[in-house]
């Protein structure tokens, strides 16, 4: 009797065990379930000479009640206690701190006040200011196929394309990695199917460029699956990862750094780090794209936060010098408008257009080539 009960229990558990095993394989070794993708994707090879470009990371997530978003979004960011991540409260833009400043989740105050990223007039003004500052395009933060950022990106493409301004989605794998290889591939398929032919999309050798943040959060076999699935569907993409570690670097077409602030906050010399990363990329036959930043201050949204002082412009200058020392083809500015973390170069009441003007000078020096 006891043996019969045990057998019945095991038989009852079998579907759950099998389902869990399939889920594990799907999450970590998806190629094992797809024989049609067993042939390796063509090896990532070197690219032709890249034009010198200056791009900035752009966040299209701000909303206001008066704008197309129809509500406060991101300006009302939470205050979070670290490392637990518990919410201490929220900023409330409806509340005025004084006669002309709202309570925003921002280290600095936008020169013209809070804006709506989905407003085409805002997009046109941002692109005009970016071009005047010597930028060639934006790497636009993108949070998956069903996100509000996906909707705003579509509108941004409609404005940027006719203006001759280039865009490259910045896929936020650092947050979206729980979707696994299949979910990440589905996101990129949807992105390419919707915008792959858009003339405003930045391309390398005809391939649309996609930056990936937090690429290390997916294991190399999953990125191999993503690449094979995209290629099998006739979707060729130029993927730029952000980790120099072996296994990952081989799955990407280029290597980039999101921000030098992580090095500066730890007391590391960004020039030394960039030399090391550039050497790793060169050994793998990949371009390396360093980043520059004016500073960092996320204390309005995180407790305790991180502060890297702007030092009256010296921090920005030092990161530019470190970036140009490795003679890159592209430079990434972090950021155009990450107001939560105080890394923006967009005009603010505290700094005016100082960092736009500094960007214009450094971009001109960069395009002139090595001294």
Along the chain, the helix and strand elements come as HEEEEEHEHEHHEEHEEHHEEEEEHEH
Fraction in beta strands? 15-25%
Helix vs. strand class: alpha/beta
Q: Calculate the terminal CA-CA distance, rounded to whole Å.
A: 87 Å
Poorly predicted regions are 16-23
Summarize the topology:
Elements: H1 2-28, E1 53-58, E2 78-81, E3 86-90, E4 96-98, E5 101-102, H2 120-132, E6 137-142, H3 148-163, E7 166-172, H4 173-176, H5 180-195, E8 203-204, E9 207-213, H6 220-232, E10 238-241, E11 254-256, H7 261-265, H8 270-283, E12 288-289, E13 291-292, E14 296-297, E15 302-303, E16 307-308, H9 314-324, E17 330-333, H10 354-367
Parallel strand pairs: 1-6, 1-17, 2-15, 6-7, 7-9, 9-10, 10-11, 11-12, 13-17
Antiparallel strand pairs: 2-3, 4-5, 8-9, 14-16
């Amino acid at each position: 009797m006891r043996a019969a009960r045990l057998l019945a229990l095991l038989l009852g558990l079998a579907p759950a065990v099998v389902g869990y095993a399939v889920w594990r394989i799907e999450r970590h070794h998806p190629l094992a379930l797809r024989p049609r993708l067993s042939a390796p994707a063509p090896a990532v090879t070197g690219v032709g000479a890249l034009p010198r470009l200056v791009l900035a990371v752009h966040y299209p997530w701000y909303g206001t009640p008066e704008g197309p978003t129809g509500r406060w979004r991101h300006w009302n960011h939470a205050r979070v206690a670290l490392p637990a991540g518990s919410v201490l409260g929220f900023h409330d833009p409806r509340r005025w701190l004084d006669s002309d400043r709202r309570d925003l989740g921002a280290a600095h105050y936008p020169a013209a006040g809070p804006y709506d990223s989905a407003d085409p007039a805002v997009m046109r003004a941002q692109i005009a200011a970016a071009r005047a500052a010597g930028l060639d395009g934006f790497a636009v933060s993108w949070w998956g196929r069903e996100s509000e950022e996906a909707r705003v990106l579509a509108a941004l493409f409609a404005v940027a394309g006719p203006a001759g301004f280039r865009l490259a989605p910045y896929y936020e794998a650092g947050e979206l990695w729980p979707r696994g290889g299949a979910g990440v591939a589905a996101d990129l398929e949807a992105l390419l199917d919707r915008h792959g032919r858009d003339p405003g999309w930045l391309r390398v050798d005809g391939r649309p460029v996609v930056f990936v943040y937090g690429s290390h959060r997916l294991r190399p076999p999953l990125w191999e699956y993503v690449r094979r699935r995209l290629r099998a569907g006739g979707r060729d993409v130029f993927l730029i990862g952000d980790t120099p570690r072996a296994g990952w670097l081989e799955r990407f077409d280029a290597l980039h750094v999101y921000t030098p602030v992580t090095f500066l906050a730890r007391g590391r010399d960004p020039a030394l780090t960039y030399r090391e990363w550039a050497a790793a990329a060169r050994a793998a036959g990949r371009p390396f794209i360093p980043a520059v930043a004016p500073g960092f201050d996320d204390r309005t949204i995180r407790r305790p936060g991180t502060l890297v002082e702007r030092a009256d412009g010296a921090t920005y200058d030092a990161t530019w010098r470190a970036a140009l020392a490795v003679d890159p083809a592209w430079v990434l500015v972090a950021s155009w408008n990450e107001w939560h973390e105080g890394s923006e170069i967009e005009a603010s009441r505290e700094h005016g257009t100082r960092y736009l003007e500094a960007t214009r000078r450094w971009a001109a020096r960069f395009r002139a080539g090595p001294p």
